[in-house]
Amino acid sequence: MIIGMLRVPCTANSYSCRADVFMPDGYGSKPIVWSPDHTKHVQLWSTPENAEADEGVFSLSIHSRDKLLKTITLQDLSAATFIKWSPDSKAFYVMWSNGGATGGYEVRVFIVEKDEAVESPAPQAVADDFAKRHYCQARGNNLYAVRWVQGSAELEMRPEVYPTGDCAPDAGLSAEYVVNTATGKMVERGQAKEMTPFTEGCPSDIFPTAFTTQKQIEDYRKSNDYDLPKH
């Protein structure tokens, strides 16, 4: 079904759609993000241990209980990393920028079940579908994960034409998608329009991040100062 408005329910009372956010310098502490049921987790780490953005190798390991399932490298990481497990603990997405706070943003999604971590075709399917209609030849497009829908069954995503003048006339155009996580099949596709701010803190209340260090993010979260920049 393809329509102009998406039917994404708000589940803020039982589950927050806000992702965990990590700056490159935060990888040195090897942070862990647990699934809601605490049976699975992902861990971030870098080589060297305190690597600078655009210089080190930034990795993510996927674990189920005590078993290491898979390790991936986040290519060309240069700014924040966003991680969010689905509410049923069956999948997670990782989103990062390879070019600073403006992009380009990339997304990978993994379904983690039965001691296997299988990559979802959903992000590539959304990126390819949007690029057929709107694409920046000079810089490419951004791709954002927004929130999980119906547990881990579907994911809301927003591709965006890179928002700079050399991407005119489509610069900043975006569309809302809901896509099947397992198959990559489009469930809903919104109309393309100018990118608007994310609401309800999904995927983050500080997105794209205006900060450069992990401490700044942690201080902001502790302060409850919601007058800081949001996207």
Describe the structure.
The protein is mainly β and 231 residues long. The chain has one domain (20-218): Lipocalin, CATH 2.40.128. It is 9% helix and 36% strand. The chain has helices at residues 122-131, 214-223, and strands spanning 20-22, 32-34, 40-47, 57-64, 67-73, 81-85, 91-97, 105-113, 116-119, 141-149, 154-161, 173-174, 177-180, 186-189, 193-194. The chain has a 5-stranded antiparallel sheet with strand order 1-6-7-8-9, with no helix packed on it. β8 (105-113) and β9 form a beta hairpin. The chain starts with 19 loop residues before the first strand and ends in an 8-residue tail after the last helix.
Element order, helices and strands?
EEEEEEEEEHEEEEEEH
Q: Major sheet, described briefly? A: 5 strands, antiparallel
The average pLDDT value, as a whole number, equals 87
SS field, number of helical segments: 2
What distance separates the N and C termini?
28 Å
Q: Rg to the nearest angstrom?
A: 17 Å
The CATH topology is given as: Lipocalin
Q: How many domains, in number, for the residues?
A: 1
- Biggest sheet strand order reads 1-6-7-8-9
Low-confidence stretches: 1-13, 225-231
Question: What CATH architecture label applies?
Answer: Beta Barrel
Class by alpha and beta content: mainly beta
Strand content: 35-45%
Counting DSSP E segments of at least 2 residues, the number of strands comes to 15
**Helix content range:** under 10%
Shape: globular
Can you identify the CATH class? Answer: Mainly Beta
